[in-house]
Design brief:
The structure holds two protein chains of two kinds. By secondary structure, chain A is α/β, with parallel strands linked by helices. Chain A is about 30% helix and about 20% strand. In chain A, the strands form two sheets. In chain A, strands 1, 2, 3, 4, 5, 6, 7, 8, 9, 12 and 13 form an eleven-stranded mixed sheet that branches. The longest helix of chain A has 16 residues. Chain B is built from eleven helices and twelve strands. In chain B, helix 2 crosses helix 5. Chain B has two domains: about 210 residues, Peroxisomal Thiolase, Chain A, domain 1, CATH 3.40.47.10; about 130 residues, Thiolase/Chalcone synthase (Peroxisomal Thiolase, Chain A, domain 1). By secondary structure, chain B is of the alpha/beta class. The chains are: A alpha/beta, B alpha/beta.
Chain lengths: ~400, ~350
């Protein structure tokens, strides 16, 4: 049904590096990006976070923006840094043509600026020029302008599955023949708002997240951005092809506002339906990049779902969130880029901080980086509101 | 692939939620902010849940429930919502709690309810609906993006019925902050919104849900959402850009500008933004076309084109145009091809093409 959809470019920035080279080095060296909070003062400064190790001024410089005269939220800067990378990696040209779009995703948009200025704005108009930058659409519009895109620009916000849904929408727009090329991705900056939100939900790890470990104690919040260039087979240039988007599914667990069911009903449906759209069987999957946040409930729910879907033939599984933290609206895109890199380089990405297996599950996460030829990689992204999305990327 | 409007429900500043057609009369108020006429939620939402439920969720759950009822209780194969501001009231509440109480948060509920996809997720939970569920938050493209997604679900044969919503709630802080940017006029009669030449408009809000279906109703008076197009221009928008985009868009459906017998425009009284609509009426669209406007009834908000879609669909189904929305006196009482055009802040443009009958 419809043309094949290829990934022809990627860009990312996260706590483990700017660009694919730095990212792969961090995986090879098993070097996580989790550390002490430095971006803002907080009573929760003792809780580890995964910050991008670049100040706003450095991000602006990388994106070629003068933030003194033209202020940007950190959220938008992160996305611009990631997007700028595809100029060199995908042969992206600004002559976008009529059938090029941009779909970005975020959970809180320009909240980093919003929370700094909200109180003073209630009193005076001194910072009124920043108001429009708080909006969730600001990032996509600036990225679109940066990349020369004017059509089909939009923003998805489905909590922690946001950017996986942006990728799915991009693939569908190409399959439907509406677009030939689309930049898809997501970004979220670390904010006091989200840090406090997850803190009050009592799901932040005091030590750094330990996905799929029996003694896991919560998630570690991170930040970052990633983009992918998706192109129709009709126009994609062969030398740029990294892999193919073959499967996707979006389902709603319809169970609870912030929690997943212990049986993993939503995750089972998402993975099974993604396999169906890709016309693949479970044993075709060579590696699963799990959502794996490190919370008690997610890893139990997702782990049981993996057991249910894959049965006795479970491929290597890892959650890369012990490296990057949970980057919320950016997580789906960042992990999609990891999945593409894994396919391209023939690497199973490692988990970190794993000691004791979960007694409820039949499998353990992949501990070491491993070179092996991969055919199909599955990436899971689950979010508040029961939003469950699974993507499958395949070697071309 | 046709996409018919099977049913709708609109909670708006007008008395629109009782039935799908026009209310007996439209409300005139003197204000610079229009607030919704809300239904009695007790008959629609479980009272136990209702007590702690944020207003935007009430508006979303009630409108979606009524829309589903009017569609004969069909279970949607997808739920797609557009919201420019999301659950802003709860976001503000949680933000102030973090900022005012030195991060000692007393209730996590506003954080949970601040998530942009809360409305779509709550609808799914209430219906125990496991199907496709996505929320778009992109200013004046939010509803258009949701509608396009629904059309694609039908085209992909992934769905027969898709519940599509456009919902935004106005908050005092939003009005206050945006007053710094000259967004609002001094209080005036909403019916006089287009009479002056001053900057600013009138704030609004609404919750509009539609059941979009690939099945014809059988009644013969079907409204088909033929297509949607969104594009960005640098500000101020140039008419030649809009003309080019509109021509190309209509061409996809074998139509030309003169085929548009009715045009529903997002005129909002803001002298900084309305000029382009006037240029298009004078120099682009057919001089015999019926021009309509709607923002004096619902106010300006990011998903006001959902209100416009309801209005356009009510006009096409009833084969009548209320005087209160007519911009010019020419009156083609039987629209066949209706175009909704909205311009936001001189940069975000959207076109929605509706066709009457089974075209």
């Amino acid at each position: 049904m419809g043309p094949r959809v290829f990934v022809t470019g990627v860009g990312l920035v996260s706590a483990i590096g700017n660009g694919t080279e730095e990212t792969l080095d961090s995986f090879r060296l098993l070097k996580p990006g989790i550390g002490k909070l430095s971006l803002f003062d907080s009573v929760h400064s003792g809780i580890p976070v995964a910050e991008v190790k670049l100040h706003n001024a450095e991000l602006a410089q990388l994106a070629g923006i003068d933030i003194q005269s033209n202020p940007h939220s950190r959220n938008t800067l992160l996305a611009l840094v990631a997007a700028s990378q595809v100029f060199s990696t995908s042969g992206w040209t600004n002559a976008s043509g009529e059938r090029t779009g941009a779909i970005m995703a975020t959970t809180v948009g320009g909240m980093d600026l919003n929370e700094q200025h909200y109180k003073s704005l209630l009193e005076s108009d001194q910072h009124k020029h920043l108001i429009d930058l708080f909006d969730s659409a600001d990032c996509a519009e600036k990225v679109a302008a940066h990349m020369g895109i004017r059509h089909h620009v939009t923003t998805i916000s489905t909590a922690c599955s946001s950017s996986a849904n942006a990728i799915m929408l991009g693939a569908r727009l190409i399959k439907n023949g509406r677009l030939r090329r689309v930049l898809v991705g997501g970004s979220d900056a670390l904010t006091k708002f989200t840090l406090n939100g997850f803190f009050s939900l009592e799901i932040l790890s005091a030590t750094g997240c330990r996905p799929f470990d029996k003694d896991r104690n919560g998630l570690t919040i991170g930040e970052g951005a990633a983009v992918l260039v998706l192109e129709s087979e009709e126009t994609a240039c062969e030398k740029n092809i990294i892999c193919e988007v073959t499967g996707y599914a979006n389902v709603n667990e319809a169970f609870h506002a912030t929690s997943s069911s212990v049986e993993g009903t939503g995750a089972i449906m998402a993975m099974s339906r993604a396999l169906e759209t890709a016309s693949l069987k479970p044993d075709d999957i060579s590696y699963i990049n799990a959502h794996g946040t490190g919370t008690k409930i997610n890893d139990l729910s997702e782990g049981r779902a993996i057991d249910a879907v894959f049965g006795s033939q479970i491929p290597p599984v890892s959650s890369t969130k012990a490296f990057t933290g949970h980057t919320l609206g950016a997580a789906g895109a960042i992990e999609a880029v990891f999945s593409c890199l894994a396919l391209k380089q023939g690497l199973v990405l490692p988990a970190l901080n794993f000691t004791n297996p979960m007694p409820e599950l039949s499998f353990q996460p992949q501990k070491a980086m491993e070179s092996r030829s991969l055919k199909h990689v599955m990436s899971n992204s689950f979010g508040f509101g029961g939003s469950n999305t699974t993507l499958i990327f395949s070697k071309v | 692939m046709p996409a018919f409007i099977k049913s709708s429900c609109v909670i708006s500043p007008q008395h629109t939620h009782h039935a799908e057609g026009f209310p007996a009369e439209m409300k005139e108020v003197v204000a610079n902010r229009l607030s919704c006429e809300e239904p009695d939620y007790k008959s629609l939402i479980n009272p136990l849940q209702l007590r702690r439920m944020p207003r935007i969720l009430k508006m979303g759950l009630a409108a979606s429930q009524l829309c589903i009822n009017r569609a004969g209780g069909v279970s949607p194969d997808g739920i797609v919502v557009g919201t420019g501001l999301g659950c802003l009231d709860n976001l503000e509440k949680f933000l102030l709690e973090v900022l005012d109480n030195n991060e000692h948060v007393t209730s996590v509920l506003p954080f949970i309810n601040s998530t942009h996809n809360a409305v779509a997720a709550q609808i799914a939970m209430l219906l125990k609906n496991h199907n496709y569920n996505v929320t778009y938050c992109h200013r004046a493209f939010s509803f258009e993006s949701a509608l396009l997604d629904a059309l694609m679900l039908l085209q992909e044969k992934q769905a027969h019925h898709v519940l599509v919503g456009g919902i935004d709630e106005c908050t005092s802080d939003f009005v206050h902050l945006h007053s710094y940017l000259g967004q609002w006029k001094e209080p005036l009669s909403n019916f006089q919104l287009l009479s002056g030449k001053s900057p600013g408009t009138i704030a609004g809000e609404g919750s509009a849900f539609f059941m979009i279906s690939d099945e014809v109703s059988g009644g013969g008076n079907d409204v088909n959402i033929a297509g949607i197009h969104t594009f960005l221009t640098s500000a101020p928008a140039d008419m030649t850009d809009v003309v080019r985009e509109s021509d190309l868009f209509l061409e996809q459906y074998g139509l030309r500008k003169q085929d548009m017998d009715t045009v529903l425009l997002g005129l909002n009284g803001d002298s900084r933004n309305d000029g382009l609509y006037h240029q298009l009426m004078e120099h682009y669209f057919d001089s015999n076309a019926q021009f309509l406007y709607y923002k004096h009834l619902c106010g300006e908000y990011y998903t006001s084109s959902a209100f416009a879609l309801w209005l356009a669909s009510a006009i096409m189904q009833s084969r009548s145009i209320p005087d209160v929305v007519s911009f010019n006196s020419r009156s083609s009482q039987s629209p066949e091809n209706l175009l909704i055009y909205n311009l936001h802040h001189n940069t975000e443009h959207s076109l929605i093409l509706l066709r009457y009958g089974r075209l």
